[in-house]
Inverse folding.
């Protein structure tokens, strides 16, 4: 009887629940208490039935969820969803459940709390199981934020199910820096948990996190750090004592996992014998039924065998791994199987088996997209499915496939293989573009752009074949490909900044963003000072600073997300549009100008040139050795050589030979007809090459040493550099306010003993400010805060002082300003030369608060027409393929400055002062920037006592050549004339009036 009553009650509740729920109105009717009570009781009865009836469990749960939503019971509603989630998870029904959860999250009617976090956590789990990592990452990030605010998002410690899982998703998306910070945050949470009851569970979680942290380090190309992480994970396991049997099994498997990953790091460091022994120990520790761990270990063992030259053993290990993946109960992710097949494909390519490699790549794609054919190489995934959830395993499989097809063409001249290589390479590039849009940190973006270089190089090779065959569109496609590979991060950054400026963000949000940026800058500089005082990034203070920086970064992302949602901006996908050959000719090319785009492909030994003139363009390939570029630069960029060997006949012979040889490779093909000016968009090491000193005509290597008589290209026509034609056209289209001053100059003085005095700066800056009309900040006035306040007020922004590029830490390339008057630094390091810095010049780290770092410039806004950096090495730094030189000059362009005059090596104070004054005089005359620099160099060489290129060729102009927009001064002139005429008219009138009176 009781059971019958319950059934009748449930049927009634079911009927109520099945009634359509109207969409919420702006002012919904007030719920009656009786209705709410009835819905709650019916829902409770349905949930009670779930515990005893498995046939209609999902139906009962669905109806209970509807009733609880009507009754506005958030906690019970989420608990019912949790029951439904567990029910489908345990029965393999994730694919059915996922869209239901997505819809449920959209229907949440209350403010954020821990229950909302639970919903996002469940949805994130489902999305991850379906391979939708990007969408899953968004859900886990929301769950992490709510866990930090409210707690209780998960019944377990959040370090594992939230932080670790989110970090693993970031690793898969190539966001290794953020993954590292999340892993470290998880470890910090575990360290704070001193509960003895959780000690064993936390130790296992810590070991797992160290294992995954090591993988992130390995992906980022730092195997030494990975090795340290694995050793820390092993140390966590060694602390475990008196384990239960189930914990002993877990310990063995975790130990095996850590040893296998450690073996991979050892192999990467070249310690192959130790790596082989370590992976063998890993396989011995792993339980036979731990299929996914054994699969991973066998893949690592295969890589080690391959590096040791034991290809047959490597193939056997991979085949064992594939057999494990075929077991019905293995549950090995298709993504991991795909990666193993790709590794097998590259091994086949090294053996010269192109067809096998292509088929293995096709099988790898089928693992990720089951609807594809495993044998038809023409079967590729639809790019429409790339955007929502990009996956680097797809890019890797497409990369292998396109390389195998390209090699088939190269061996057999197979046109069909070439066409397939073309379409497949385009797909791979599209996937890498999508991956680039979802990563946040610049380090991860840089790694992604450098990994895509192989694809761009292959695309240029394919297009060159088409061009040689007479394809009319090949050159246009090659130019677009070249542009796509240049200044990728810079194009994203300036585009997003432009959107933010146009949005007219509210004062409160703008203030919030500035506050976060200031805090971020302060902490970054604190970390730098800690490291330069011989601290370690992973000591207690270093870790604390990194965690504080991470929290600020998270707040910055949330603020930008708020701005994006409020103003309808898609900042993550903001990008400068790629320009075309026709657009360059129409909008950028000046009369008599030749534009040359370079793409350097050192792997193939070629450099590609695409030159554009009025009425002519071409796509050319030339032999290329990067070592030839660096060797030539070293001939002229050294002060000691310039001062002591400039008359050396041996140096003369080498210089004239190499300077003309590089001209024939890099410029002569584009200058078949004379040009009046050159714009060069370099690539790779070419970004550091002083094109000015290439010789258009050969010189007698055995003749008298006379550098003044050489036919330098840079003294016959203006030359400028361009990071990207697309970026330059974007800058040209941006509205720019007219500056307040024609000139704003800074000439710091260095009195604390850490940097050598600069003698010429103050007088030059002061005289130019008076002549051009502007502000001069010399000596103690030239401070960092003053620079940041006035940087955007001048058409010409001029810094004359010490600067230095950091190859190891590009963010910390610096410009040194005057220390505050209260500073009394006791650092006694002093340089006695008259160069404005130098590769061995180190700042007084105790006084680093008066340095302006590249990361600070990068995140500000500078509206000047040109930044003139009269300092050492402002145009050099780490050359990042696909991005350019990570220099101080690049930071100014990222800050919105369309042109910079930068130095490519140490520069002398006296030569810098002379060149700078000549350049500024020419700008004042209204000349284009490149012409102003050209004439300055020519005038200097005609008058200089030593014309060796070191003294004059170190400065290069990057960016817009347009004349500087000096503030209008003519109104004052005309006003004075008008006043004079008015005074004269009054005098004449008064004269005639008096004459008439008398």
């Amino acid at each position: 009887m009781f059971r019958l009553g319950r059934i009748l009650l449930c049927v009634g509740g079911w009927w109520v629940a099945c009634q359509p729920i109207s969409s919420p109105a702006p002012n919904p009717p007030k719920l009656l208490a009786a209705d709410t009570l009835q819905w709650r009781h019916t829902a409770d009865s349905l949930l009670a039935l779930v515990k005893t009836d498995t046939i209609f469990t999902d139906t009962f749960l669905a109806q209970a969820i509807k009733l609880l939503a009507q009754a506005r019971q958030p906690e019970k509603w989420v608990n019912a969803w949790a029951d439904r989630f567990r029910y489908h998870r345990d029965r393999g029904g994730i694919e059915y459940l996922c869209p239901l959860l997505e819809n449920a999250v959209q229907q949440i009617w209350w403010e954020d709390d821990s229950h909302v976090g639970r919903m996002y956590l469940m949805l994130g789990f489902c999305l991850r199981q379906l391979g939708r990592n990007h969408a899953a990452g968004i859900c886990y990030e929301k769950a992490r934020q709510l866990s930090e605010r409210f707690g209780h998002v998960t019944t377990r410690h959040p370090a594992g199910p939230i932080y670790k899982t989110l970090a693993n998703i970031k690793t898969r998306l190539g966001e290794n820096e953020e993954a590292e910070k999340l892993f470290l945050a998880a470890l910090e949470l575990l360290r704070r948990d001193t509960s003895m009851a959780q000690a064993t569970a936390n130790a296992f979680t810590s070991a797992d996190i160290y294992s995954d942290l090591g993988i992130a380090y390995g992906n980022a190309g730092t195997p030494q750090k990975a090795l340290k992480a694995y050793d820390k994970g092993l140390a966590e396991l060694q602390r475990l004592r008196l384990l239960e049997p189930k914990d002993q099994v877990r310990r063995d498997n975790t130990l095996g996992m850590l040893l296998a990953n450690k073996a991979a790091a050892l192999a990467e460091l070249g310690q192959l014998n130790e790596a082989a022994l370590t992976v063998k120990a890993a396989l011995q520790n792993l339980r036979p039924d731990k299929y996914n761990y054994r699969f991973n270990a066998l893949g690592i063992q295969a890589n080690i065998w391959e590096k040791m030259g034991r290809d047959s053993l490597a193939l056997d290990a991979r085949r064992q791994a594939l057999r494990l993946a075929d077991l019905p109960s293995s549950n090995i992710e298709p993504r991991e199987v795909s990666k193993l097949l790709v590794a097998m494909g590259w091994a086949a390519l090294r053996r010269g088996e192109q067809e096998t490699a292509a088929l293995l790549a096709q099988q790898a794609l089928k693992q990720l997209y089951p609807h594809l054919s495993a044998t038809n190489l023409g079967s590729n995934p639809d790019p429409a499915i790339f955007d929502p959830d990009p996956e680097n395993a797809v890019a890797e499989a497409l990369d292998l496939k396109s390389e195998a097809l390209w090699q088939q063409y190269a061996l057999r001249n197979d046109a069909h293989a070439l066409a397939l290589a073309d379409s497949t390479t385009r797909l791979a590039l599209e996937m890498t573009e999508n991956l680039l849009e979802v990563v946040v940190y610049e380090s991860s973006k840089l790694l992604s752009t450098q990994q895509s270089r192989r694809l761009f190089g292959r695309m240029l090779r394919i297009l060159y074949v088409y061009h040689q065959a007479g394809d009319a569109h090949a050159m246009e496609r090659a130019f677009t490909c070249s542009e796509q590979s240049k200044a990728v991060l810079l194009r994203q950054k300036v585009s997003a900044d432009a959107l933010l400026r146009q949005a007219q963000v509210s004062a409160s949000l703008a203030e919030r963003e500035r506050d976060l940026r200031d805090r971020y800058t302060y902490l970054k500089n604190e970390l730098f000072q800690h490291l330069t005082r011989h601290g370690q990034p992973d000591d207690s203070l270093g870790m604390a600073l990194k965690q504080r920086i991470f929290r600020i970064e998270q707040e910055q992302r949330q603020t930008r997300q708020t701005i994006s949602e409020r103003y309808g901006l898609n900042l993550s996908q903001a990008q400068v549009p790629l320009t075309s050959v026709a657009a360059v000719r129409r909008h950028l090319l000046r009369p008599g100008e030749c534009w040359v785009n370079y793409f350097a492909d050192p792997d193939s030994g070629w450099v590609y040139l695409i030159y554009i003139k009025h009425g002519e363009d071409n796509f050319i390939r030339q032999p290329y050795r990067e070592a030839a570029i660096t060797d030539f630069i070293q001939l002229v960029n050294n002060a000691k050589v310039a001062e002591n060997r400039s008359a050396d006949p041996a140096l003369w012979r080498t210089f004239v030979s190499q300077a003309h040889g590089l001209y024939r490779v890099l410029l002569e093909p584009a200058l078949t007809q004379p040009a009046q000016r050159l714009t060069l968009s370099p690539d790779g090491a070419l970004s550091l090459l002083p094109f000015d000193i290439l010789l258009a005509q050969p010189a007698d290597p055995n003749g008298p040493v006379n550098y003044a008589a050489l036919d330098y290209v840079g003294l016959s026509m203006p030359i400028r550099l361009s990071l990207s034609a697309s970026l330059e056209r974007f800058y040209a289209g941006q509205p720019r306010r007219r500056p307040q001053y024609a000139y704003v100059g800074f000439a710091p003085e260095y009195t604390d003993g850490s940097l050598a005095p600069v003698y010429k700066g103050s007088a030059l800056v002061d005289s130019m400010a008076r002549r051009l009309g502007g502000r001069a900040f010399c000596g103690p006035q030239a401070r960092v805060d003053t620079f940041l306040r006035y940087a955007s007020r001048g058409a010409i922004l001029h810094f004359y002082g010490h600067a230095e590029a950091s190859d190891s830490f590009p963010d910390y390339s610096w410009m040194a300003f005057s220390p505050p008057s209260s500073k009394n630094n006791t650092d006694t390091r002093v340089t006695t030369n008259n160069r404005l810095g130098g590769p061995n010049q180190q700042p007084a780290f105790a006084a680093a608060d008066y340095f302006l770092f590249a990361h600070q410039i990068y995140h500000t806004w500078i509206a000047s027409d040109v930044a003139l950096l009269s300092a050492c090495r402002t145009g050099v730094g780490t050359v990042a393929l696909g991005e350019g030189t990570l220099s101080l000059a690049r930071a100014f362009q990222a800050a919105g400055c369309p042109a910079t005059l930068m130095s490519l090596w140490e520069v002398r104070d006296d030569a810098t002062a002379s060149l700078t004054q000549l350049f500024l005089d020419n700008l004042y005359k209204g000349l284009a920037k490149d012409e102003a620099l050209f004439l300055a160099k020519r005038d200097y060489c005609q008058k200089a006592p030593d014309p060796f290129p070191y003294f004059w060729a170190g400065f290069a102009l990057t960016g817009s050549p347009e004349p500087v927009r000096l503030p209008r001064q003519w109104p004052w002139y005309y006003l004075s004339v008008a006043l004079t005429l008015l005074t004269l008219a009054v005098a004449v009138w008064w004269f005639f009036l008096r004459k008439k009176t008398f």
